## 1
Amino acid sequence: MTELPSQWHLCPMESGSKNPGSILGKDWPSKCSNDPDVIATWPQGCNIGVLLGSRSGIIDLEFDSEQGEMLVESWMEDCGHPTTPTYRSAKSTHRLFQWDEKFSLEGAKFGMMGVEFRFGCNTAQSVIPPSVHESGAHYEWIIPPWECEPIPLPDLIYKQFLNLKSTSEKKTAKAVVVDPRYTSGDSLLTKARNHIEQTHSWESILSADGWKFCRNRGDAQDWWRPGKTKGSISATVNFGGSKTLRVFTTSADPLKPESSYDKFAYLCCTRFNDDPVKAAFGLVPEDVLGRKQPVAVDLSKLLGSDVDPPDTAEFMEAMIPQEGLIRGVYEFYRTVSQFPSPVMGIATALSFCGTIFGRRIRSQTDLRTNDYNVVMAPTGSGKEACETTVLKLFAATGYDLSHPPDVQSGNGLLATVAEKPCGIWVCDEFGKTLEAMLDKRANAYLKQIGTHLLKMYGKAGTTYGGAAHSAGAKNRITQPHLCLLGLTTPKVFSSITADQVDDGLFGRLAFFVCQDRPKMVISQQEPPSEWLVGQIKKWIEWCPTSQGLLGDTPSPQMLSMSPESFERWQKHSEKIRERMDSEGELRAGVWCRVAARTMKLAMIHRAARLRDDPATTEWALIHIEKPDIEWAIVMSNFLARTSCNLLLDGVADLQQHQAQERILAALKVRPEISQRDIARSHQKITTAQFMAAAKALEESGMIVVDVIKPTTGGRGKVVYKKPETIA
C-alpha cells in the first residue's frame, strides 16, 4: 500500500468483505485516511477500499454485465485506449479517472445498461487490490497507479454518461409522475393547473423560494435547494422532458425526495399546506376557475327553529365538495344539463356515489350507503338530465348498475334487485308512483313497491327474504343495495295524507326541492373526464367478498369514524333525540332518520375523497374525519328541515289536531293538567305529540306550557295551563 498515491484516502474492511463499515463503523467516510501511521494500525490482510470523490481525486468506471463491458470497451476504443490506472475485480474491470468538480453535481453513482459511473462524492468507495473477493478471487492491478496517474474522463465518455442519464430520466419521468392528488379530479384543478402553467415560470417560482440555479443540461435545468450553493444537485426542472420538477434532496421539506411536481403541485405543497382546492382559489382568479370560493355554512341555522333556513339552491351549491367523486359527478351533470341546478346536481351525485360504494364499504354500526333521494322541481326544469348523467357515466365505464326506470310491481322490483343486487333506480314521474304506493285503494301490485322499498332500506347489511307465493319463496337477496333517485313535481304533496306519511316510507325519503326553474345554459357536450371514469371503474370493479357455505358473499370493508368524529356524531344524535321529544309524530318520523342518514352521508363524503384505488387501500388506516361528519350533519339536518316543511305545508296532521282538542277539553274543566296525566288518559297519542300540540297552542296564545323543576333535582314536570292561571 506504500506504492499507492499519497492523496488516496483508504478504508479497511474485513477480508472478503465489501462493507466499508465492517471495521470503521457507520461514520466510515470521515475515518478514511491517507496517514501511513493510521494505516499501519489496520489489521493485517484486511481488504482495502479507496474513497471516491474530491478527497482522493478519483472516480471509478466499471461494468457489471456483458452489455456493459461491450459499451465501455467500445468507448475506450473510440477514445484511442487512453492509459489510466486499471484493475480487475472478480466480475469486472475498473478504470480510475481524475476527479472533476462537475462530478460534484451528480450522485454517488449512476448505473444503466450494465455500465456504472462511481463518482463517490466522498460517500462511496471501491474495493481495490490486493483485496480478496468473498468468492476467493483476488483483485489485481492491470495498470497500477504507480505507473501512471489517473487521466481526466474523456469528453466522449462524459457525453455518453449524459445521454444515459437523459434516457434514464425519461423512463423515470414516465414511471413516477406527479401525484394524482394534484392532477386528477374535476375541472377546478385542471383549470388551475393550466393557468399556472401559462402564467408562471419555473425560474420565477424557484428563485422566489431561495433555490439557486446550477446549470443547463440540454432541455433540463439543475437547481440547488435553498441554502445550498455547491455539491450534488437538489432538483431538476424538465426532468426527462416531463416539464416537471424532480426533487432528489431530503432537505427541502415539505417536498418529498424522489418525487415529481408540476408548477401547481409545487405551489400547492409549499404555500398552501398541500391543499389543492385552497391552492386553486388562492392562485387563480374565480372568473378563470368558473367557480366561487366555497363559503362555510352556519350549522346553527339548521338546528334552530327560530332561524329561517338558507336558500336551497345557494345552500346546495355551498355544500358541493370542492374535489373528489361528488364534485366530479356534479361537474359532469352540469355539462349534460341545459338547465343546471345545484339542487338536482348534488342529488344526482350523492345517489350515484351511494350506488357505486354499495356492498363495498360499511360503517362501524354496519350501515351502508343506500338511500332514497327525491328531486322535486317544476315541470320544464330539466329533471331528465339527472337520469342522463347516471346512464352516461355507466356507459363510459362499460358497467351498468342502473335498474329499469319503469317498475310495474313489487315483484318486478324484487326481480330486478335480485338480478342486480347493487344498483340505482332512477324513477321519472316518481310522484305518481309514490301516490300509488301510498294510496290504500291503489293497485295492489303497485302498493307492493312501497312495501319492498320500506323493508329493503334497512336490509342492506343482511338478507331480504323476498316474497312468498304458493310456489314458494322467491327473490331472496343477500345484502340488497338499492339507491333511489326519484324525479317529481311538487304536486305530489297535494294528495298525500297524514296516514300515508305515517307508514315509515316517507321518513326514509330525502327531498331535494328546486322551487325555481333553473336558467338555460347551453354548454358543450363533453364526455366524462378520464379521471372520473377511471375512479368509477375502480370502485365498481372492486368487489370485496368472503367465502362462506353458500359461496362468495359481499364482505364490505369497514370505514370507521375517528374517535373525534364518533363523539361528534353521538352528540348530534342525542340532540336529535331531544328534538323528537317535542315534535309531532309526523315530524318525529322524519327526525328519527337523521342520525342514520348522517352516518350514510359521512361515509359517502369520505369515500368520495379517496384518491387511491379502493382495492389496494389499507382501509384500517382510513377514517371518517371531523370535516366529513360536520358536512353530513349539515346536509342531513337541512334535508330533515325540508321534509318537515313539506309536511307542514302539504299534509294535515290529524293526530296533532286530536291532541290539541284533548288539551283544550281538559282545560275547560280544570285550570291546569300535567302532561303525564293527559298522556295516561289518551295512550294512543304520544307524549311528544302532546308536547308538539301544546307548543302550537301556546304560540297562538291559547294555553301556557310551564315546566316545574323539583327541588330534589331530576326531570321537570310539564304542566299545561290556562293563560289566566299565570300570575
## 2
Amino acid sequence: MNINHIKFFVKAYEEGSFSAAARAGRMSVQNVSKTMFDLEEEIGCLLFDRTTQGVVPTEAGRAFYVRAQLAVRAFDLCERFSIEGGGQGICHRRIISLP
C-alpha cells in the first residue's frame, strides 16, 4: 500500500472531490481517479460513490478514512523526525573508511 495513495484518499474524502485532491497534490484529476481505483482494487471494495457533484464515501470509505487519517499522521511524524534530525544524540552512525 502506498502512503501517497492514502494521502490522496484522505484529501478526496475531506474535500468531497477528486478535483480538490488533484489540485492539492499537483496531479491531474485522471491520475487521482486512477490512484483511487487502484487503492479500491487493493482493498477489495469501493471507497467512494462517484457522482456528478463529486464523490461520496461509502460505508467502507468511512471506515477506511478513520484508519487512513492515523496512517497519514504517523507517517508525517516519522518524516518530521527524519527531517528535523530527531535521532541526534540517540542514533549511532557507522562510518566505514577504506585504507
## 3
Amino acid sequence: MLTCQIPPQYFEATHGTAPKYAGQNKVNPGSIILSAEMMLRHMGWTEAADNVLSAMSNVIQNKTVTYDLERLMDGATLLSCSEFGDALIDSL
C-alpha cells in the first residue's frame, strides 16, 4: 500500500518486513518507486512524475517483472530487483 501523509509531507512505501527475502535481490521495488512518484508530483515536478509512472507501466506491460508478478503473467520474463530497476531506467 502506498501512503502520502500531508502535512507534513511524508512519503513512504508501507508494508511489512520480509526478512526471508533479505539479500536475495528479488523483491519488487514498485511501492517505493511509486512513493517517489507521489513525492515528485507533490513537489510540482509533474513531468518527472509522469515519466516515472510511464516507465513503470511500460516495463510491466512488456511483462519484464519481478517474481511476484512473473508467476501471475503468462509469458513474462523474470527480473531481479536490480534488473527491474535497470529496466525502469532504460524505459525513462
## 4
Amino acid sequence: MLAWKAFQHVASYDAAVSEWLWKQSQKGEMFPPSFTVPLELKSTLRYGENPHQNSAFYVDKGLYLAGAGGIATAIQHHGKEMSCNNYLDADAAWNCVSEFDSPTCVVVKHTNPCGVASRQDILEAYRLAVRADPVSAYGGIIAFNTTVDEELAKEIREFRSPTDGEMRMFYEIVIAPGYTEKGLEVLQGKSKMLRILEAKRSCKGMLWLRQVSGGGLAQESDDLTPEDIIFEIKSERVPKRMSSLMPGSPGFARSMLRATPLL
C-alpha cells in the first residue's frame, strides 16, 4: 500500500508538470497527444445512477488545489449526503446559472432545466423560474448566482406550489455562491434532508471531457453567455418584444424543458 501511495503521488506530480509544459510550449493548442487527469477520491456514494450500481465521487486534484469553482469543490452546509444523481443534477443547475451575469434562478429536474428566469429582483426571478414548470420543479434543484439572504430563504421555505396554491414547494438541493448567516439558518429549518451547497462560479476556458466506450471526447467548454448571442431576424416583421426575450430583461422567463418562452 505504501508503494502504491508513493507511485500515485509521483504520477500526479508528473501529470501536473506535463500539463504545464504542454501549455507553455504549445500556445493556443488545447489538445495534447495524450494526457493524464489526476483524480482524487472525495467520497463513496450510497449507490450509482441506479440502486444496483456502486458509485464514488472524485475531484480533479489540480483544479481543487488551484481553488477552481464548480460542484466538485462545493461546500455542503446542510442536509443528507449527496448521491450520484444529486451530483449530476447539481452540476447541470450550477453550470446553467453560472452562464448569467444578471440575477438568475435555475430549476433543474433530472439534469434538464425546467425553469430559468432573470430579473433584477431575485425573488421575482425565483417565482418565475418555478412557475415555468411547477410540476417538474417540485422535488428538483434550484440554483442562484446571487447570495441567498434571509428574505430569499424565507421565500424558498414558504413558497406555495403554483399548481394548487397550498402545498409548499419541496427541493432536493439549493445551490448558491454564498449565504448570509440568517439566510442559511432559515433554509436549514426548511428540512433536515435539504442539501445546501455553496459553490464558486465554474471556471471558463476549461477542457470538457466525456467518456465513451473505449475512449473519450474532449472539447472546449461552452463559454458563450446568453448576452453574447446575436439574433438574426428572418421575418419581414421586426418583433417588438425582442428585448423581453433577452436574458436579464424584466420579461425573461423560459421553460427549457418544453422550449416555451413565458412572458
